[in-house]
Design a protein that fits this description.
heterodimer, A: 310 residues, mainly alpha, 75% helix, flat, B: 67 residues, 2 helices, 3% strand, rod-shaped
Amino acid sequence: MSDISASDSTYEASMGDYFALLKPRVMSLVVFTALVGLLVSPVPVHPFIGFVAILCIAVGAGASGALNMWWDADIDARMKRTAGRPIPSGRVEPGEALGIGLALAGFSIVLLALATNFLAAFLLAFTIFFYAVIYSMWLKRATPQNIVIGGAAGAFPPMIGWAVATGSVSIESVLMFALIFMWTPPHFWALALFVKSDYGNAGVPMLTETHGRDATRKHVIIYTLLLVPVALGLGFTSIGGPFYLAVAIFMNAWFLKGAFDIWRRDDAACEADKHRVEIKVFKVSLYYLFAHFGALLVEAALRLYGVGGW
Amino acid sequence: MAMRVEHELHERRKGRNYGLGLILAGFIAIIFGLTVVKVLQLGDAAQFEKFDHVARPQLIPQEGAGE
């Protein structure tokens, strides 16, 4: 050997590895819903302040993702879906993830407080605390209802967006919160019914494994039924309107039919058509959330021309 | 014996350094932008001129000035 090169015994993380800690895909949903919460509010926000606020909310969500990966590294290593994440694959040290998570959480909360108001910053801080401590550290390994209560963490962003603009919490922002909160369980359980998971191996209680698939199907229809009045109710508030209501009626009927189809099935039928219905309902649930928040945005745009709202 | 200075590890470190540089530059831009927006939102320049820690006689209301 005629040349000398540095030893490569320890891997040094790249920027992309650190970025993966922030769960970019989850971040995109957070950005979309927070942006809608901000834009549909009756108080105009300076575009630059709005941009900084959304950035803070996205970074805060990323911080909670990093803290979640730090805490759950042991579980992630035992599941196929998550074994490739930065910590279990050895690309990032657990301590680095903890440091990045805490630093980004601190930066995003303080910057949001300075750029907008203390209520928005408090809500962001609570969201990070809820996801990292209440969900990741406590509920996830303790109860099969983990995603029901943990779903609250994903439901806060539109409420924060609304608080950024108005500095308050109101019926509109509570209903936007409730919409995502009630949507999360049927969305997630529809997925759990067709994805072969190894949560059991990792010691995470999932409804499909603790109570069985029939109980999960029943839960899907119950939570979808509870979701419908929330989604329709939002249409009668100051941010709703005829267009939103029309979209909501159509999407709720579609989702409800899917949930009803799931409820009527048994394992044999699922195996026979390779979970066709469950896969379809899961896709519908994605359109469902996008359509509702998109419709709120359209209503806000129509109001600018004096034709939206009631 | 040739010494190879560049290594794949250096490439990765370079990427990280550039990344951090961009983040810091972005952070400065955000703080600067926020300052500009917040100050302009005050509207009346006299409001923030008061806070420059220097005696500004022209800001003291003159007797009979408003009449």
